[in-house]
Amino acid sequence: MTAPRYDVIAIGNAVVDVIASCTDELIEDLGLNRGGMTLIDEARATELYDAMPPARELSGGSAANTLAGLSTLGLQCAFIGQVADDQLGEVFRHDMRATGIDFDTPARSGEPATGRVMIFVTPDGERTMNTFLGAGQFLPASALDEDLIASGAILYLEGYLWDPEEPRRAMRRAIEVARAAGRTIAFTASESFVIERHGDDFRAMIDEGLIDILFVNEHELATLTGESDFDTGVNAVAGKVPVLVATRSEKGAIAVANGERAETEADPVAKVVDTTGAGDQFAAGFLSGHARGEPLGMCLRRGAIAAAEVISHYGPRPEAQLTKLMAEKL
C-alpha cells in the first residue's frame, strides 16, 4: 500500500447555502419540516427564496463543510462533487479552493443549476433545511478520479448524496477503489429520512464490513436500528463497525471502537446562533484526531469543540482559528 497523498477525500453534495433568520410563524406559514431537511425542486427553491427575509449565501454541503473544518485544522483534503457551469458553481469552486481544498471535478453544462439549500433559522438556533440538489444529483461514476480516491487515507461519504441514483453508483465505485487501495471508509448517515429510504443499503454495507467509521446522531441511530433506547441502539451497531460515533446535541457524544467506549460532554456555548453544520464540524474535529492516531476520547473532544464553534455563529463552516481554539481547550 502506497503512502497516501491526502488525509481525507470526500464525496458529497456541492451546494450553496442560503441562510436567513426567521420567526417560528414563518416556518408554519410555509409548511416547512421544522428542524429537518426536505428535498425540493427548483420551483419550490425559488418560492422559498422569495419568501425569505434578508439572507446570506455561503458555500455548503455536508461533506464539503467537514472538509473545510479539516483543512482549517491542517489536514490535506480533496473534494469530489458536481456543480453546474454557472455562477453559483464558480462561487462554490472558489470557496473550496480558497479554503485549501483541492476540487477539480469538471462542471456540468446545461440544466439543472448548481444546488442550493434554503435554510431558515428560528430564534432558538434550530435550522430548517430545504435542499434543491441541482447538478449535484447527476455526479456520475465516470467523473471519479480513481487515482485521487486511492490516494486518500480516509474516504468520507455523505449520506445525503445516496438518495439520487447516479451519485449512489459513483459512491459504490469509490468504496471499491478505496477498499482495493487499503484505505479507511467513513460514512455519515446525514438525516433520518435518508435512512428511511435507503436503510437496507446502509445496513447491508455495515454487515458486509464496508464502513470503518460511522457517524450518526441519536435520531439517525434510532431509525437505523429500530431501537428507541440510545444505548440499545449503540450496542446493536457498535460490534459491526470498527468505529461508531453517535452525537446527542447538548448531551454530548459517544464513540465505540473495538470494544472501547468513550464519551464527551457538549462544549459550552454562550449562545446557540445557528445549528447548521454542527454535525459536519463534529465529524471534522473527530477525524482530525483520528487521522493523527489520537485516543478516542481526544477525538471526541475535538469534535465537540469544533461543533460548539460553528453553532456560535451563522453558517456551516468555521470562522475561528480551530487549531488555536483547540490548543487553548485541550
Describe the 3D structure.
The structure is a single chain. The chain is an alpha/beta fold. Helices cover 39% and strands 23% of the residues. It contains twelve helices and 14 strands. The strands form two sheets. The protein has a nine-stranded mixed sheet, with helices on both faces. A hairpin with a 2-residue loop joins strand 13 (253-257) and strand 14 (260-264). Helix 3 packs across helix 10 (278-290). The protein is globular, with a radius of gyration of 18 Å.
Count of helix runs: 12
pLDDT under 50 segments (min length 5)? none
Mean pLDDT: 94
Largest sheet: 9 strands, mixed
The CA-CA distance between the termini, in Å, is: 33 Å
- What is the string of helix and strand elements? EEHEHEHEHEEEHEHEHEHHEEEHHH
- Write out the strand line-up for the largest beta sheet, numbering strands in chain order: 6-5-1-9-10-11-12-13-14
Strand residues, percent: 15-25%
Oligomer: single chain
Report the structural category: alpha/beta
What share of residues is helical? 25-40%
Shape: globular
Strand tally, please?
Answer: 14
